[in-house]
Amino acid sequence: MDAPLRLISTNPLDQLARTLEALLVVASSPLTVEELAEAAEDDAERVEAALGLVGERYREGRSGIVLEHVAGGWAFRASRDAAQACARLFEKPAQRNLSQASLETLAIVAYLGPCSRPDIARIRGVSADSAVANLVERGLIAEAGREEAGAIRYRTTPLFERVFGLESLSALPRLDDVGADADAIRDRLHAVAEQRSA
Amino acid sequence: MIVRELELDLDAFEGPFDLLLTLVLKEELELREVDVAGIVLAFLERLAEQDALDLDACGEFLVLVSALLELKARGLFPEEAAELLELEPEVAAEELARRLAEYRRMKDAARWLRERLEREGERFFRLGPAPLAPKPETPLAPQEPERLARVIRLLAKEPAQVSLAHMALRFPPVSQFLERFRAVLRRRSRFDFDQELGGLSRVEQAVAFLALLELRRNGEIAIEQAAPFAPIRISATDVEREDSWTLRSA
User: Fold this and answer.
1) pTM for the whole structure
2) What ipTM does this complex have?
3) What is the mean pLDDT of residues B71-92?
4) CB contact, 8 Å: A100 with chain B?
5) What's the angle, vertex CA A157, arms to CA A154 and CA A158, rounded to 5?
6) Which helix or strand (DSSP H or E) is residue A193 part of?
7) Can you state the angle between helices A100-112 and A117-124, rounded to 10 degrees?
């Protein structure tokens, strides 16, 4: 059985761990090790070690608050045990009722971003305007400069990584090349092409 | 089966196929927003309900839907349509296959995201606006309070009174002209207003005229003017009396 929460310890990192807890409870978005180190006036290596302590204290099954590495930083979230209670009181506006069109657009921006609306339309075959506007409003994607031709480019936001529980975009799975289906399509298109050129 | 009456239930449109075509042709519906695959599915479902294959309907549908597809493709790839036409059929097929494969991958990615969202449905975390970045304080440059006081003193001083002398109208006293006219009439029995006062300013002339009216009120003079704007002639009343007497006696 887990030991009860112990805030007083002989561990020299304990004071730092308590400072990190304070910083993380105030933060509304994940904090990087560098940010934590700067605020705590300590070095990054010790901060990482102290984060280990905090993570041990705040983990699923032990605490209602859970420390997680997400969106390139560290943040507290509610434990899964408390999810139902949270759901009774809190909305999830960013991810509620995401349509298929929005998810496809989100996938394109996440994997190929930064990319523009014409890029997305080219892949999906339908205009991406409303899906992009919707995702921007939810805060899941944001503007990221412009193409040379002037079209605005979009990338996913840290909120996207938080909502989907990703440590970073590199945590997205590698998509296996589409197998037999694509080959079959290709063969059929080739057959048509041969007939036309014959 | 009447193709144009095909009922559609798409994201961008709900209603009969005929209305969709009309709206697209009138450019009241953005074809780019229309899921053509959804139309094909609706048609196929309807077709499956029929016992026999309705070739006429199939033909009509093919013509309509291919026209829609062409319009949509032109709308989506205004420049690339020309590029693809110029490609060799094999290359164009390869390009199409590449795009289809890319779309497939993105559909797979979207599916993964949906599953992930369902798995992560129990995530609750604090959300808020990005915290304000601490702004470095910009200290004021060293100040000299005495200099500020000097400037305020300058501002607080009562301004010099502005002279309005040049704006005032100076009226000479009416009495001056009363004396003058009496003196003239002692020398001469009558005189001409314009000749006597020709060299004076308008204001002085106006005051002189007031003096005339005053003399006339006292009965000291008579004023004559043959016509409007004609010379004004002034004569002493005694003279006038003498004249009238002379005339009567004559």
Assistant:
1) 0.52
2) 0.75
3) 68
4) yes
5) 160
6) helix A180-197
7) 120
